[in-house]
Specification:
490 residues, 13 helices, single chain, elongated, Alpha-Beta Plaits, Isopropylmalate Dehydrogenase, alpha/beta, binds nicotinamide-adenine-dinucleotide
Length: 490
């Protein structure tokens, strides 16, 4: 094992951040972590100096050097104009995987789930977090959900590699592909594709609504769960909370070349400066970091000393319970208690063993190569129109007189995804946002290509007629598979 010091970038953050970071570093030093911290300033003061992302050029330079970031929580100032530092860091450094272990510590930390020990692996860069939102009409706002094949491949492969490296037995996928057939459908499909390369691991898929209910009810039946960004954001907080407390969980953000480690909670400004906060979340993030930088021996020492401290009933205020806890301590005293137990193991809770190869395989396997282009045929367009009327037959009559000709015709109109023409139901509520599907005129089911020029001509005619088209989506066939869904009722 290398004895060289590994440079890491450390940010003490805001609120309780400096106290919990000092506590964490005290424990790491006591355990003999072979690290050389470089300190940077991020967060509130940097935002207030006018850096809208909360991080400045010198901090980025340190990160470029070390590629490993141990980060305390920061306070995002109230009011507009400040970008989330977390989202900026994840996206800039390509931190595609968010790894959140959630384990219960019964009977020392109160929980309804005594044997819970699961890991949520959340996709960290895409989905609804692309931040592409628009107001399109008086009544309608939209947020684009972008799911990519490379994004799915990376996160799902990571989940399987993580399971293997950490002696986990099962990987579960949560998605909502019964409704979002193309986006969540891709996530599920790639789970099956990549899963076939890992026959040693048990695999299952749940539709996320019932999957989430089962996770909250019987978390002991889950091991590693992989999911898209928004689902993972929500369910990892649920899992951490039902395990005992969001204040205990750490989080790793992993990319091909960079990684960031933190607590899952925020800067808790009301607790700041009082030596009250529990440093366990950040300490658990730091344990993940030690594994990542190839020091699983130190990670194991710190983890077991921490478990022993919890088991000895030495608790900060947030988990202290009369009758169960032995001693209520502050942030610093808790860290000193963990440091004093380095070399000891828990006696009742299961001690942790880190596989010497627990760092997830060679990162090159996450470098996704672009696949050969597929045969792609333009076969129509969905034009979204802002029209304040309410009668689908009326909008069809108006638009058909502009759009329909001997080459193209309106084949369907929907409102909020439900078909309202032809043959809609009068009960369907209609907003001011209409989708008008146009395809080549054909007497048969056969798909006929159309040209971009034909579509451009439709837009010119709509503009001349004074119609407000707010966006369009081209309809493509990829080989013989449609690249679009039917509307409800189509
Ligand atoms: P929070 O997680 O900071 O605090 C919520 C409550 O949880 C606190 O009032 C406290 O009672 C408790 N708590 C949290 N961490 C604790 C700990 N270590 N020990 C004991 N008790 C703890 O959430 P919030 O109040 O919604 O957010 C405060 C600030 O933190 C905001 O500015 C928010 O933007 C920021 N935030 C930062 C991060 C991050 O940097 N990763 C994450 C979430 C929130």
């Amino acid at each position: 094992m290398s004895q060289e010091l590994v440079p890491i970038t450390v940010a003490k953050g805001d609120g309780i951040g400096p106290e919990i970071m000092d506590a964490t570093l005290l424990v790491l030093e006591a355990a003999g972590a072979r690290i050389a911290p470089e300190f940077i300033e991020i967060g509130e003061q940097v935002y207030l100096r006018g850096e809208s992302s909360g991080i400045d050029a010198s901090a980025w330079q340190s990160l470029e050097r070390t590629k490993v970031f141990l980060k305390a929580p920061i306070t995002t100032p109230q009011g507009g104009g400040f970008k989330s530092l977390n989202v900026t860091t994840r996206k800039t450094l390509g931190l595609f995987a968010n790894v959140r272990p959630c384990r219960s510590f019964h009977p020392y930390v109160s929980t309804k789930h005594p044997v819970m020990d699961l890991v949520i692996i959340r996709e960290n860069e895409e989905d609804l977090y692309a931040g592409i939102e628009h107001r399109q009409t008086d009544e309608v706002y939209q947020c684009l959900k972008l799911i990519t094949r490379p994004g799915c491949e990376k996160i799902i492969r990571y989940a399987f590699e993580y399971a293997r490296a950490n002696n986990r037995k099962k990987v579960t996928c949560f998605s909502k592909d019964n409704i979002m057939k193309m986006t969540d459908g891709l996530f599920h499909k790639i789970f099956e594709e990549i899963g076939s390369e890992y026959p040693d691991l048990e695999q299952e898929h749940w539709i996320i609504d019932i999957g989430a209910a089962k996770m909250a009810d019987t978390p002991e039946n889950f091991d590693v769960i992989v999911m898209a960004n928004l689902y993972g954001d929500i369910l990892s907080d649920v899992a951490a909370q039902i395990a005992g407390s969001v204040g205990l969980a750490g989080s790793a953000n992993i990319g091909v070349n960079y990684a960031m480690f933190e607590a899952i909670h925020g800067s808790a400004p009301r607790r700041a400066g009082q030596n009250l906060a529990n440093p366990s979340g950040l300490l658990n993030g730091a344990i993940q970091m030690l594994v990542h930088i190839g020091q699983p021996d130190v990670a194991e020492k710190v983890h077991n000393a921490w478990l022993r401290t919890i088991e000895d009933g030495i608790h900060t205020y947030d988990i202290y319970r009369e009758g169960v806890s032995q001693q209520k301590v502050g942030t610093r005293e808790f860290a000193e208690a963990v440091a004093a137990r380095i070399g000891q193991e828990p006696e009742k809770l299961a001690p942790v063993r880190y596989n010497p190869n627990a760092k997830v395989a060679d990162n090159n396997i996450y470098k996704v190569e672009r696949k050969p282009l597929e045969a792609k045929t333009l076969v129509g367009v969905d034009i979204f129109v802002h029209w304040p009327g309410t009668d689908p037959n009326e909008i069809h009559a108006k638009l058909a007189s502009i759009i329909d000709n001997d080459q193209l015709a309106i084949t369907m109109i929907s409102n909020r995804g439900t078909k309202v023409w032809p043959g809609g139901n009068p009960e369907t509520f209609c907003t001011d946002h209409w989708r008008v599907r146009c395809k080549a005129r054909s007497g048969t089911e056969q798909v006929i290509p159309v040209s971009h020029r034909q579509l451009a001509d439709v837009f010119v005619r709509l503009a001349d007629a004074g119609f407000d088209f707010i966006k369009s989506e081209n309809l493509y066939m990829f080989g013989d598979q449609p690249g679009f869904t039917r509307s409800q009722g189509e």
